[in-house]
Amino acid sequence: MGILIDSGARVIVQGITGVQGRFHTELMQNYGTDIVAGTSPGKGGTTVHDVPVYDTVLDAQKNHSANASIVFVPAPFAADVAFEALEAGIKTVVIITEHVPVKDAVELMSYAKRLDAQIVGPNTPGAITPGEYKLGIMPANVFASGNIGVASRSGTLTYEIAAALTKAGIGQSTCLGVGGDPVTGLNFIDPLEMFRKDQKTNAIALIGEIGGNIEELTAQYISESRYPKPIVAYVAGRSAPVGKRMGHAGAIVMGKAGTAESKITALEAAGVRVARTPSGVAELLAQTLREE
Fold first, then answer.
1. Which of 62, 73, 100, 195 has its CA 20 to 30 Å from the CA of residue 14?
2. Distance, CA of 231 to CA of 245 (rounded, Å)
3. Is the domain of 49 the same as that of 175?
């Protein structure tokens, strides 16, 4: 069972008839995820990889009672699509799309909070519990089942670090991308709370990057809550120039705010071991597990 959904989750793919929706639907199905329906306005009554397609989420819900959705639609429409899912009773919505307008994202997160629903992303690779389900776009072959929880702001670094963990014989419980846009539904504190309660997770890897203050707030949370499980982190962007966006829309340093060094300092002060390179995460975790 994963921290976000469990292996029995029933998933709707919003934007299933598009190139990305069609492609990743098949890969998620092959991994064992139960894709019960898809939506695409005007395409109701068709099928994609034997999955029935509906014009709206509400139509799909009348027949399938899904509890999760994944969004593959262009940025200008992504928030509307997510609103549609929430209004139809979906409690977990994963938004793969990046560069969702900030105003749209703020309104969406506020609405989801009122409904006690979870938005993952925007600009996320999704989540995977190795061996059980994949709700996202990550390459499944780099992950292996185990006891390390991974929460990340970067999809590519998630894959790289998971591959290094797997190569070192260190499996993962759930790997979750919180998203790289400036406004996201989950931050690091949310998955840390989930991992705290998850009996399968013995230690956590956090993958941060420049921009914003999510890592600093997480360090404060770790310290004040006396977080009970060991955490190893990596923060990307130590050499990033001020004022230049690096990869993600949220990865930008303005003045002294959001620098890698400020994040590393805060995390280390909270007792988190911070790797200097992505490959160092596996080495530090192996060392940490030996000491436990």
1. 195
2. 27
3. no
| DSSP-based three-state secondary structure for 195 | helix
Whether 248 sits among the annotated catalytic residues: the reply is: yes
**Cβ burial 94-107 (10 Å sphere, 16+ → b, else e):** bbbbbbbeeebbee
What pTM was estimated for this model as a whole?
0.92
State the residue range of the domain holding 245: 138-291
- Residue 75 resides in a domain: yes
Residue tagged active-site, from 49, 64, 99, 248: 248
Rounded distance between C-alpha atoms, residue 205 and residue 208, angstroms = 10
Alpha-carbon gap, residue 161 to 170, rounded angstroms: 11
Query: Whole-angstrom Cα distance, residue 112 to residue 23?
Result: 28
3-class SS at 224? helix
pLDDT above 60: residue 115: yes
Read off the pLDDT of residues 260-275 as tens digits, 9 standing for 90 and up.
Answer: 888 999 999 999 999 9
Contact by Cβ (8 Å): 48, 16: yes
What long-range pairs does 263-267 form, CB within 8 A, spacing at least 24? Answer: 263/208, 263/210, 263/215, 263/216, 263/219, 263/235, 264/233, 264/235, 264/238, 266/215, 266/216, 266/219, 266/220, 267/206, 267/208, 267/215, 267/218, 267/219, 267/222, 267/233, 267/235
Residues 31 and 160 reside in one and the same domain: no
